[in-house]
């Protein structure tokens, strides 16, 4: 959709467009709309000065006896003219400086940025005043000064955007193809920079209008031209306040507010469109919490965690989207379960739901997460907090920002301890944190360091140490090795296995890597399209896969011990949440799909103790 | 780069900026049409000798940049200017006979600080608090209200808000309309005088605080929303911390970091706001002095006021950068 | 074996932190990072050579050197017999016709505002390789269909966001082969794709090599992929090639301790096989602080005294199979 249509669809953007449009119309049609010509000189009597509003003069008269409404209408011309012209100059200078500084970089770029920084530090109104005072108060000069001093924010923005674009892979690829600098600038960089420049220009216009009105009010405007600021200057310095002539003071000010507000709304809407910022955050209050009065059915004594018929939905543009549907599996004490699947299968969502850490808009409309007689899916917030970390802890991917960058690693581990064991002192907690860091192979002395001082592998180990802080019964590791080199991966997986053996914890390993699961897990749950396709022990599933998806997946992944074996790929791609197939989720890609598979969702077929798969083919008597 | 190196580099750049401002200031007024000496003298009927005497007095007989005639190379207008600036001698006012620029500017600065400091403190405290709450309760009526408030104060020119408050404040609440003290008032005690000043200070401070508050609120809100959506907040939540604890120990400090920079960048706006507020309320501060100097063409005062304003902003900016350096352990590049 | 299309002879590439004014004034030495340290490689037409190693080993720098995006600090980079360093800027730009690259990220490699047709025809236009629009479209359709996007007409008007990851990567490959290059460098071509669709892209790359006699240099960290697709493999560590040879030979009989360790820890999807794993301690050192002697010695499980002082070169251990380890020569 083109940007102007999107702007119109944006609620506040539309309001802004209308406001701005109205002002432009008034400015253009001034001679038709204004009752009198404020530039014409008329003879006035003393009664005409600061006369209050009446039938003929809807907004009364000003200090010179002229009709305020007419001046207001004509004032739009000057204010808007200055605003747009000055912004054009600022855009030209700022855009060029920004593009050059961003694209060329190096000494030239740095030099240009130093100049920009200089202008940013020097107070702009003061500078404008000084320069206008020297070169004279004509409209042309004012436009020049505002424009010549207003380019800095545009330059900064364009430069940073150009820098970002320059680093993007498609620009690198264009260069690798052999495109020259000019081609790259014109075809690849500029089209990406222009939208943000547009949003910025609109904001610059509003600033320019504000600048003009301020300068005029102070007395540095062009006295021969009527602008709203000029009107305020005359009214204020010529006794409107003491005369009580609010009609000479308020309308021009409101006119300024109207135009600036309209422009700002449009600018914000454009920025929203081109550079959507994060809207929601993790601390929003939970909105869709279900409650229950009964307790969940207790599971067998050797089971640590039981997920039963879990359903997770998200708020979509056109109604709720189902991310996880009817997922059930159990994790026995001390057991390790691999939760395996590709993008969109819901494996991470399932475990986030278990800890009630879903992003805002997520909900658990049905199903239960049974842990020690409690249903974590419906537990009140304060009791859930007690259960978090002490019973069930999560090892997040050790990305740069998974830990607070401005606090030391040891501090953050200690925090977990003191949250759940407030009787421990800070020193005790720190001691334990150091022990844990030693346990995971980082070394106790690094407890005072900050996350950015750790390498990727170290950060992942730190996340493991953190997860162990309150001796949980189950740890959930979310793709712990995805971003790591294979040797570090082996070290981390080895560590996890070691720790589990030492401390007897159960583990849920979320990953897309079937090979890692084969090596480190006892059981595996294969997910596809938000449902469980198949589960069982790793031996059962890998040697006799019951679900076509599992079978094909095993044939698609390379195996180092069978080099040269040709690999298949499954045509199509995993379904998107807003485009889920009506029947079996895998039917569109399944080579053995029957007509029924496209219409109905297959139930779980039990194939043995804790062994099941959901496929209609399994119901056929001929199949094993 | 080590942090002490970084420190030195930042201070260095601040000094360079000051020098550039000084040089700019110097050349700006040499660009004036007409003879500066005559401008300083004001009375066009004066004899040629008097003009010549004024020329020597103001040092306008020396070469502009570098002295290539007799005498040391640094005996030029520029270096004399730099020298006197460094010594604190800002020259003499054209408009106020027998008053030095330094004296005028110094007094005005004190008055401006009286206005700006309380307003900034109120605005920062309220803006930070409201921005935090608005972000936290994102999407609720409180948030919408805060956003609207911020948007409206952003679109309102500072001087217009001043006019409105002045108009209604003086008519409905009897606040004074101009000046620092009531003219011709007699005070029985020092407290009386302070009370009078505060009475005069109320509306200007309120105006200033409201304008700044709106901006700080918006900035704080967006910073907090960004921080609250970071991964480490999710980690903290998973650890079982209460929302209050998360906000205190993780959210707040991280959200403050960009605030410090933004407040620093905003100092230019503070000056512009001060100029406008002082003009509306005739508060005898540095802003009003600047504006008056323009209308009386009192160039030494204009130069001096501008210089002082620029240096204050550069200095405050530097302090903010150093504070940021202290707060964020990640910074390694300038 | 035929003449190599790509030939690196003793190539070294160092990076220095840029000098600031202060550095020049104080005459300070700037820290050097040797990303690639004296490597020799050949890639022959019609073969897939996998360049394998962990982060910091220099494989990406090597790819950039072969592309001509960086000049070597020492040594010679030859493509089709021409020393890339001898070309001027314009000649180098034209050399891109013969050397093309496929990047890792299919979501970022394509300009979101361009259509598939624009993207695949861009290389033709940049190098003025076609007579007219008709000819250009022919070549674009041919490239797309070879890459498996059939019928090509359906895809021409689409934009990247309408395509899945696998399809995008195929568009990138189509854009790379539309100029009929002699060399194709694939930098982690499938690591960001879903597992079930990786094979289609890898199969395509293998076909390109075997059917069109293109020399494919595949950079990857995934040894399993190497096993399935590469004809030859070169293992890199801290800027050096430590082992190189036909894939089957290196996999079955690795001679360098690092290769052995790497191969032993690669997970295989067979639960019943518990292998003897050699897990190295610590992490790969920073390339700015390369250990003396054999650069692998601090982590080597079979290190001997002489390894701390002698830097091993490549020795032949089999047919076309080389490894750089002192233990291969009796003391």
Helix content of chain A: 40-55%
The outline of chain A comes out as elongated
CATH class of chain C reads: Alpha Beta
Proportion of beta-strand residues of chain C: 15-25%
Q: What's the structural domain tally of chain A?
A: 2
SS elements, strand count of chain A: 12
The helix count of chain C comes to 11
Count of DSSP-assigned helices of chain A: 23
Secondary-structure element string of chain C:
EHEEHEEHEHHHHEHEHEEHHEE
Low-confidence stretches of chain A: none
Q: Give a short account of the largest sheet of chain C.
A: 8 strands, mixed
Please give the most extensive interface between any two protein chains, plus how many residues each contributes: A-B, 75 and 82 residues
What does this structure look like?
The complex is a heterotrimer of chains A (624), B (334) and C (331). Chain A has two domains: 3-30 and 76-274, MetI-like fold; 303-391 and 472-623, Rossmann fold (3-Layer(aba) Sandwich). Helix content of chain A is 50%, strand content 13%. Chain A contains 23 helices and twelve strands. Chain A has an eight-stranded mixed β-sheet with strand order 6-7-8-3-9-10-12-11, with helices on both faces. In chain A, strands 2-1-4-5 form a four-stranded antiparallel β-sheet, with helices on one face. The two termini of chain A are 52 Å apart. The relative contact order of chain A is 0.07. By secondary structure, chain B is mainly α. Helices cover 73% and strands 0% of the residues of chain B. In chain B, helix 5 runs parallel beside helix 13. The longest helix of chain B has 39 residues, at 190-228. Chain B is flat and about 85 Å long. The model of chain B has no long low-confidence stretch (mean pLDDT 82). By secondary structure, chain C is of the alpha/beta class. Chain C has one domain (6-98, 181-328): P-loop containing nucleotide triphosphate hydrolases (Rossmann fold). Helix content of chain C is 32%, strand content 21%. Chain C is built from eleven helices and twelve strands. Chain C has helices at residues 21-26, 59-67, 89-95, 116-126, 133-146, 152-156, 165-177, 195-212, 223-229, 247-252, 257-265, and strands at residues 6-16, 32-43, 48-52, 74-79, 82-83, 99-102, 183-187, 215-220, 232-237, 240-246, 315-318, 321-323. In chain C, the strands form two sheets. An eight-stranded mixed β-sheet of chain C has the order 6-7-8-3-9-10-12-11, with helices on both faces. Chain C has a four-stranded antiparallel β-sheet with strand order 2-1-4-5, with helices on one face. In chain C, strand 9 and strand 10 (240-246) form a beta hairpin. The radius of gyration of chain C is 21 Å and the shape is globular. At the A-B interface, helix 5, helix 6, helix 10, helix 11 and helix 13 of A face helix 1, helix 6, helix 7, helix 8 and helix 9 of B.
């Amino acid at each position: 959709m083109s940007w102007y249509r999107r702007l119109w669809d944006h609620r506040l953007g539309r309001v802004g467009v209308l406001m701005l449009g109205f002002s432009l119309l008034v400015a253009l049609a001034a001679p038709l709309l204004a009752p009198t010509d404020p530039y014409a000189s008329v003879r006035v009597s003393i009664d005409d000065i600061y006369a209050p509003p009446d039938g003929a003069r809807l907004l009364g008269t000003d200090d010179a006896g002229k009709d305020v409404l007419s001046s207001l209408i004509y004032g739009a011309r000057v204010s808007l003219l200055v605003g747009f012209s000055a912004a054009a100059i600022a855009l030209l200078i700022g855009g060029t400086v920004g593009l050059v500084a961003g694209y060329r970089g190096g000494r030239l770029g740095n030099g240009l940025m130093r100049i920009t920084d200089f202008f940013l530090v020097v107070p702009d109104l003061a500078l404008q005043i000084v320069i206008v005072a020297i070169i004279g108060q004509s409209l042309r000069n004012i436009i020049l000064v505002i424009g010549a001093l207003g380019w800095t924010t545009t330059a900064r923005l364009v430069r940073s955007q150009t820098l970002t674009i320059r680093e993007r892979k498609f620009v690198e690829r264009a260069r690798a193809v052999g495109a020259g600098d000019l081609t790259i600038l014109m075809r690849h960089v500029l089209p990406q920079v222009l939208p943000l420049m547009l949003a910025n220009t609109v904001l610059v216009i509003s600033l320019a209008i504000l600048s003009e009105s301020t300068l005029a009010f102070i007395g540095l405007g062009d006295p021969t031209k009527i602008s709203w600021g000029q009107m305020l200057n005359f009214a204020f310095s010529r006794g409107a306040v003491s005369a009580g002539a609010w009609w000479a003071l308020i309308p021009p000010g409101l006119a300024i507010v109207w135009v600036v507000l309209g422009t700002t709304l449009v600018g914000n809407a454009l920025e929203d469109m081109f550079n959507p910022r994060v809207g929601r955050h993790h601390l929003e209050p939970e909105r869709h919490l279900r409650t229950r009065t009964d307790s969940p059915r207790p599971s067998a004594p050797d089971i640590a965690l039981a997920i039963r018929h879990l359903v997770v939905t998200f708020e979509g543009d056109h109604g709720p989207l189902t991310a996880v549907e009817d997922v059930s599996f159990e994790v026995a004490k001390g057991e390790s379960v691999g939760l395996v699947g590709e993008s969109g299968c819901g494996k991470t969502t399932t475990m986030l739901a278990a800890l009630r850490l879903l992003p805002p808009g997520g909900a658990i409309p049905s199903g239960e997460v049974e842990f020690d007689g409690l249903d974590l899916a419906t537990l009140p917030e304060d009791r859930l907090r007690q259960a978090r970390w002490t019973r069930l802890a999560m090892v997040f991917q050790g990305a740069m920002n998974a830990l607070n960058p401005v606090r030391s690693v040891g501090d953050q581990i200690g925090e977990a301890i003191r949250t759940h064991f407030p009787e421990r002192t800070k020193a005790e907690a720190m001691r334990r944190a150091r022990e844990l860091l030693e346990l995971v192979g980082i070394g106790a002395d690094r407890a005072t360091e900050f996350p950015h001082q750790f390498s990727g592998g170290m950060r992942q180990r730190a996340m493991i140490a953190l997860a162990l802080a309150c001796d949980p019964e189950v740890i959930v590791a979310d793709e712990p090795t995805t971003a790591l080199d294979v040797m570090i991966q082996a070290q981390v997986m080895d560590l996890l296995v070691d720790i589990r053996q030492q401390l007897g914890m159960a583990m849920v390993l979320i990953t897309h890597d079937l090979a890692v699961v084969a090596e480190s897990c006892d059981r595996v749950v294969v997910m596809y399209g938000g449902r469980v396709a198949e589960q069982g022990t790793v031996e059962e599933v890998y040697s006799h896969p019951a679900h076509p998806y599992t079978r094909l997946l095993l044939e698609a992944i390379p195996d180092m011990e069978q080099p040269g074996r040709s690999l298949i790929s499954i045509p199509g791609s995993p379904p998107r949440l807003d485009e889920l197939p009506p029947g079996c989720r895998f039917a569109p890609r399944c080579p053995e799909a029957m007509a029924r598979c496209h219409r109905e969702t297959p139930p779980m077929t039990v194939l043995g103790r804790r062994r099941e798969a959901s496929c209609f083919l399994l119901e056929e008597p001929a199949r094993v | 780069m080590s942090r002490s190196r970084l420190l030195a580099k930042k201070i260095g750049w601040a000094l360079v900026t000051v020098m550039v401002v000084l040089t700019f200031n110097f050349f700006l007024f040499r660009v004036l049409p007409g003879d500066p000496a005559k401008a300083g003298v004001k009375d066009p009927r004066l004899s040629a000798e008097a003009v010549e005497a004024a020329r020597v007095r103001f040092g306008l007989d020396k070469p502009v940049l570098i002295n290539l005639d007799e005498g040391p190379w640094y005996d030029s207008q520029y270096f004399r200017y730099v020298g006197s600036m460094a010594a604190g001698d800002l020259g003499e006012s054209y408009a106020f006979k027998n008053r030095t620029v330094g004296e005028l500017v110094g007094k005005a600065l004190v008055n401006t600080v009286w206005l700006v400091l309380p307003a900034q403190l109120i605005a920062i405290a309220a803006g930070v608090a409201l921005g935090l709450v608005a972000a936290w309760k994102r999407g609720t009526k409180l948030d919408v209200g805060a956003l609207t408030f911020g948007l409206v104060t952003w679109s309102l020119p500072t001087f217009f808000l001043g006019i409105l408050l002045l108009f209604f404040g003086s008519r409905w609440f009897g606040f004074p309309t101009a000046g620092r003290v009531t003219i011709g008032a007699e005070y029985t005690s020092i407290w009386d005088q302070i009370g009078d000043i505060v009475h005069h200070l109320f509306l200007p401070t309120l105006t200033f605080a409201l304008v700044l508050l709106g901006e700080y609120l918006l900035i704080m809100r967006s910073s907090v929303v960004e921080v609250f959506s970071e991964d480490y907040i999710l980690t903290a939540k998973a650890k079982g911390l209460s929302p209050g604890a998360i906000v205190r120990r993780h959210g707040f400090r991280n959200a403050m970091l960009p605030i410090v920079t933004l407040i620093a960048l905003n100092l230019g706006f503070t000056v512009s706001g001060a100029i406008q507020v002082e003009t509306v309320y005739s508060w005898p501060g540095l802003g009003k002095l600047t504006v008056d100097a323009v209308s009386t063409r009192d160039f030494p005062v204009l130069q001096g006021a501008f210089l002082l304003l620029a240096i204050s902003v550069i200095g405050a900016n530097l302090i903010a950068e150093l504070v940021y350096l202290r707060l964020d352990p990640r910074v390694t590049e300038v | 074996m035929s003449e190599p299309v790509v030939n690196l002879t003793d190539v070294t590439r160092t990076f220095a932190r840029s000098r600031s004014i202060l550095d020049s004034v104080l005459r300070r030495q700037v820290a050097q990072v040797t990303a690639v340290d004296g490597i020799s490689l050949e890639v022959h037409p019609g073969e897939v050579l996998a360049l394998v190693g962990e982060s910091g080993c220099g494989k990406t720098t090597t790819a950039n050197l072969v592309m001509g995006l960086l000049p070597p600090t020492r040594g010679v980079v030859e493509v089709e017999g021409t020393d890339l360093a001898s070309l001027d800027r314009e000649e180098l730009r034209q050399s891109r016709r013969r050397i093309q690259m496929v990047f890792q990220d299919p979501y970022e490699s394509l300009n979101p505002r361009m259509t598939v047709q624009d993207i695949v025809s861009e290389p033709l236009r940049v190098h003025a390789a076609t007579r007219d629009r008709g000819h250009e479209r022919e070549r674009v359709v041919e490239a797309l269909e070879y890459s498996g996007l059939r019928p090509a007409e359906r895809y021409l008007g689409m934009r990247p966001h309408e395509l899945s990851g696998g399809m995008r990567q195929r568009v990138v490959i189509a854009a790379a082969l539309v100029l009929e290059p002699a060399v194709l460098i694939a930098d982690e071509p499938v690591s960001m794709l879903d597992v079930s669709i990786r094979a289609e892209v890898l199969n395509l790359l293998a076909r390109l090599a075997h059917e069109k006699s293109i020399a494919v240099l595949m950079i990857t960290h995934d040894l399993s992929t190497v096993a399935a697709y590469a004809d030859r493999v070169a293992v890199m560590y801290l800027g050096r090639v430590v082992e190189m040879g036909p894939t089957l030979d290196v996999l079955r009989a690795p001679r360098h301790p690092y290769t052995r360790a790497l191969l032993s820890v690669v997970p295989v999807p067979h639960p019943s096989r518990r292998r003897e794993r050699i897990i190295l301690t610590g992490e790969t050192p920073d390339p700015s602080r390369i250990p003396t002697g054999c650069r692998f010695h601090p982590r080597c499980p079979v290190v001997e005294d002489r390894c701390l002082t002698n830097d091993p070169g490549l020795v032949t251990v089999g047919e076309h199979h080389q490894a750089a380890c002192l233990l291969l020569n009796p003391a």
